[in-house]
Design goal:
Number of domains of chain B: 2
Radius of gyration of chain B: 21 Å
Number of helices of chain A: 8
Structural class of chain A: alpha/beta
Largest interface: A-B, 58 and 80 residues
Radius of gyration of chain A: 18 Å
Helix content of chain B: 25-40%
CATH class of chain A: Alpha Beta
Largest sheet of chain B: 5 strands, parallel
CATH superfamily of chain A: Aconitase, domain 4
Strand content of chain B: 15-25%
Shape of chain A: globular
Number of strands of chain B: 18
CATH class of the largest domain in chain B: Alpha Beta
Order of helices and strands of chain A: EEHHEHEHEHEEEHHH
Distance between the termini of chain A: 31 Å
Oligomer: heterodimer
Chain lengths: ~200, ~475
C-alpha cells in the first residue's frame, strides 16, 4: 500500500508516558472487522479515549487540546502483543507520522516501517528529556531528520542519533515497499522453490 | 562444514534467498497460514497490483478469530464478522487456496489446525498474520507472526524481508513438581524476563523439562514466546516430534518422508553453538502460576502475593495503573480472590491435553454456581477427541458445557466477551486491559488452575484438589 514518503519532520508531540502499551490498547480487537484500510484513526486508543457511552474521557491525552502534533512519544516497550497492523494504521490514520520510545516491540516496529510511520528509538535518558520538555512547554518542537538519522529538541542543544537499516531508510524516504523489490526477484524465488525440500 | 550453528541458524539460513547489505534477508516461506482478520487488506493489495497468490498450495486458510462458538450451523449474526468471513472465502476461492470455513471438519484455531493436519513440519518456515504463530516452533520450525503488509508480501512472492533476529537459549533442567504444567513454565519465564525481555531474539528452549514435555506442552510454551517479546521460540525436533507428525494429512509420506528425515534429524544446536544470550532456570522452583496485572509478565506463584509497587520491575506509574484496573491491592494474596468467569481454550491451551487436565480436576465435582464457564475446543478434531475419550461426560456431569471451536474469549472479537469489571481465570495468552471485553479483568493460568477456580469460585491452588498425582 502506498504511503507518503518520510524525510524530515518538525512537530510538537503528544506524550504518553506509560510503559508496555500493547496493541490491544492502541486498537481493541473489536475494531478489526473491516476489510478495507480506512477509518482506524477514529478508534485509536479507543478504550482509554472514550467511555463506554462513547463520551470522551477528559483526562486522556488525545482529548486534551493542550497537546497536538504529528509525533507520539511513549514509554518503554511500545506496541507489544498482537501483530495487528491495524495498530500502526490507526496511528497513521490519526495523523501521527513518527513514534518515539526507548524500546519498541518487534512486529509493531516492522509494521510501522512498512506503512510509513517512523519508529525512533532513543535512550531512556533522552526519552525523559523529551517528556520533560513537553511538560514544560506542550508546544515544544521535536525535529526528526531521517536522512541524517538524528532527533533533537529544537529549543535546546540536545540531540541523539537513531538506528534504521539503509534499506528501510531508502524505502521510507522514497515511499517504496518491499513487494516491489520481491516481485523483481521472481526468477530467483522460482528456482529456490523448485529445489526446496518441504 | 561451517562453524557451529544453532537450531535457529540451520533453519533460517537454509531459507535465505538473498541477504541485503545493511538490510533484511529475503526469506523463503514454506507455509503461510491465513485467517479472516489480518488478510482482507492484503488480498485487496494484490488486486490493486493485478497479481495472484504465488503458491496457493503453500497457503492455508481458516476462519477462527471473529467466529461465534455456538450455533455455527446458522448464518453469522454480526454483519461485520459475516462480511470478513465472506471476504476470506471469496479470496481463497479466487486464488485456489484450501479454505476450512465454519463447520468444515478441519476448521479450528489456525495454530491448532496447522500441527493437527501436518502443515507444521520440522525445519519449515511458517508465517501467519497472528503473533502466536510462534506455536509452530514446537516442531523445530522457524515460525513467527507478521503484519498485514507482510501477509501481502508472502501472498505475492512466498518470501518475506526480515532482519535476522539475535538468538537466545532458555535452558531448564530438573523435574516439574506435581500440578505444574507447561503453561506455568511459560508464565514463570515471562515473569522473570518481563514482556520485553526477549524482544529482538528468537528463543530456543532446551533442557530436560522441554525434552520430557509432550508435543502439546511444547506448543503451549512456544506459543507464549511472543509474550516475552520474542518473535518466535523453538524446540529441536526429536522422536516425539516425528511420531506426532507421521501420517497426518499434509505430512510427507513414503519417499518424501525418507528424503526429509536426514534434514529433520540434523536440526539441533551444535555443541559449541553461540547464543547472543543464555538464560537458565530450574524446573523444581516453578509453582503453578497466576497473573495479577495487565500484562503476561505480571505473574506470581499461586501461593504468592502481589508485589509492592516499589519492589516491582518497571515504572511505578504503569504498575499502579495496572493494579487499579484490576482493583487489586499491593501485597494482596492471590489465593481466595473471587472470580466470575472461567475460559478454557485458545491457541495456548485449547488442545486435548488441556481438556484432559481440566477434566482431571472437575471430575466428580460441581461447577460453582456463580461461575460462568466457557470451554472452547481449539478445533473440531479436539472437540471430537473430547467426545470420544469420554471427557464430555465428565464435564457435563460437573455442570459444564462445551462450545464450538474458535479463538473466542481470548480476544473477544465475537460475542464471548467478559463483562466489564468481572474477573476471568483464563487459559489464554493475554491479560491486557480490555482484551477479553471492555473492562474485563483477566487472570492468566493453566487449565488446572482454571478448573480449580471453576469448581471453587475463587483462586485456588489446584494441588489441593488433585486426588492423584497429575503427570
Amino acid at each position: 500500500m502506498a504511503y507518503d514518503n518520510f524525510n524530515i519532520l518538525t512537530s510538537s508531540a503528544v506524550p504518553l508516558p506509560l510503559e508496555n502499551v500493547d496493541t490491544d490498547q492502541i486498537i481493541p480487537a473489536r475494531f478489526l472487522k473491516a476489510t478495507e484500510r480506512k477509518g482506524f484513526g477514529d478508534n485509536l486508543f479507543r478504550d482509554w479515549r472514550y467511555n463506554q457511552d462513547n463520551s470522551p474521557k477528559e483526562n486522556f491525552v488525545l482529548n486534551n487540546p493542550t497537546y497536538s502534533g504529528k509525533i507520539l512519544v511513549a514509554g518503554k516497550n511500545f506496541g507489544s502483543g498482537s501483530s495487528r497492523e491495524h495498530a500502526a494504521w490507526a496511528i497513521y490514520d490519526y495523523g501521527f507520522r513518527c513514534v518515539v520510545s526507548s524500546f519498541f516491540a518487534d512486529i509493531f516496529r516492522n509494521n510501522c516501517l512498512n506503512i510509513g510511520v517512523l519508529p525512533v528509538q532513543v535512550s531512556p535518558e533522552f526519552l525523559d528529556e523529551i517528556f520533560k520538555a513537553i511538560e514544560a512547554d506542550p508546544m515544544a518542537e521535536i525535529f526528526v531528520d531521517l536522512p541524517n538519522q538524528k532527533i533533537s529538541l529544537t529549543n535546546s542543544e540536545q540531540q541523539e542519533s537513531f538506528d534504521i537499516s539503509a534499506y528501510k531508510k531508502e524505502n521510507l524516504t522514497n515511499g517504496f515497499d518491499d513487494i516491489d523489490y520481491l516481485l523483481n526477484m521472481r526468477e530467483e524465488i522460482n528456482e529456490f522453490a523448485a529445489n526446496t525440500p518441504l | 562444514m561451517s562453524a557451529s550453528r544453532t537450531l535457529f541458524d540451520k533453519v533460517w539460513d537454509s531459507h535465505v534467498i538473498r541477504s541485503i547489505e545493511n538490510g533484511p534477508d529475503v526469506l523463503f516461506i514454506d507455509r503461510h497460514l491465513v485467517h479472516e482478520v489480518t488478510s482482507p487488506v492484503a488480498f485487496r493489495g494484490l488486486k490493486t497490483r493485478g497479481i495472484k497468490v504465488k503458491y496457493p498450495s503453500r497457503t492455508f486458510a481458516t476462519a477462527d478469530h471473529n467466529t461465534p462458538t455456538i450455533n455455527q450451523h446458522l448464518p453469522v449474526q454480526d454483519p461485520l464478522s459475516a462480511n470478513q468471513l465472506k471476504a476470506l472465502e471469496e479470496n481463497a476461492n479466487e486464488h485456489g487456496i484450501p479454505y476450512w470455513g465454519l463447520g468444515h471438519e478441519n476448521n479450528g484455531i489456525v495454530h491448532v489446525i496447522g500441527p493437527e493436519n501436518g502443515i507444521t513440519l520440522p525445519g519449515a518456515t511458517i508465517v501467519c498474520g497472528d503473533s502466536h504463530t510462534s506455536t509452530h516452533g514446537a516442531f523445530g520450525a522457524v515460525a513467527f507472526g507478521i503484519g498485514t503488509s507482510e501477509v501481502e508480501m508472502v501472498l505475492a512472492s512466498q518470501c518475506i524481508m526480515q532482519p535476522k533476529p539475535k538468538k537466545m537459549r532458555i535452558t531448564i533442567d530438573g523435574k516439574l513438581n506435581p500440578g505444574v504444567t507447561p503453561k506455568d513454565v511459560a508464565l514463570y519465564i515471562i515473569s522473570q524476563l518481563s514482556t520485553s525481555g526477549a524482544t529482538g531474539y528468537f528463543v530456543e528452549y532446551a533442557g530436560e523439562i522441554f525434552r520430557n514435555m509432550s508435543m502439546e506442552g511444547r506448543m503451549t510454551v512456544c506459543n507464549l514466546s511472543i509474550e516475552m517479546g520474542a518473535r518466535g521460540g523453538m524446540i529441536a525436533p526429536d522422536e516425539k516430534t516425528f511420531e506426532y507428525i507421521q501420517g497426518r494429512t499434509f505430512t510427507p509420506r513414503g519417499d518424501a518422508w525418507e528424503k526429509a528425515l536426514p534434514y529433520w534429524t540434523s536440526l539441533y544446536s551444535d555443541d559449541n553453538a553461540v547464543f547472543d544470550k543464555e538464560v537458565e532456570y530450574h524446573g523444581s522452583t516453578i509453582e503453578p502460576m497466576i497473573t495479577f496485572g495487565t500484562n503476561p509478565g505480571m505473574g506470581v506463584g499461586i501461593q504468592g502475593g502481589i508485589p509492592l509497587a516499589n519492589e516491582a520491575k518497571g515504572s511505578p506509574t504503569t504498575y499502579k495503573k495496572s493494579l487499579e484496573y484490576m482493583a487489586f491491592g499491593e501485597g494482596d494474596s492471590m489465593i481466595g480472590k473471587q472470580i466470575d468467569y472461567v475460559f478454557l481454550g485458545s491457541c495456548t491451551n485449547g488442545r486435548i491435553e488441556d481438556f484432559r487436565a481440566f477434566a482431571s480436576i472437575v471430575k466428580g465435582k460441581k461447577k460453582a454456581d456463580h461461575v460462568t464457564a466457557w470451554l472452547v475446543p481449539g478445533s473440531h478434531k479436539v472437540e471430537l477427541a473430547i467426545k470420544e475419550e469420554g471427557l464430555l461426560d465428565v464435564l457435563t456431569e460437573a455442570g459444564f458445557q462445551l462450545r464450538e471451536p474458535g479463538c473466542s474469549a481470548c480476544l473477544a472479537m465475537n460475542d464471548d466477551k467478559i463483562p466489564s469489571g468481572k474477573y476471568a481465570v483464563s487459559t489464554s495468552n493475554r491479560n491486557f486491559e480490555g482484551r477479553q471485553g471492555p473492562g474485563a479483568r483477566t487472570l492468566l493460568a493453566s487449565p488446572l488452575v482454571a478448573a480449580a477456580a471453576a469448581v471453587t469460585g475463587k483462586v485456588t491452588d489446584p494441588r489441593t484438589l488433585l486426588e492423584t498425582e497429575y503427570a
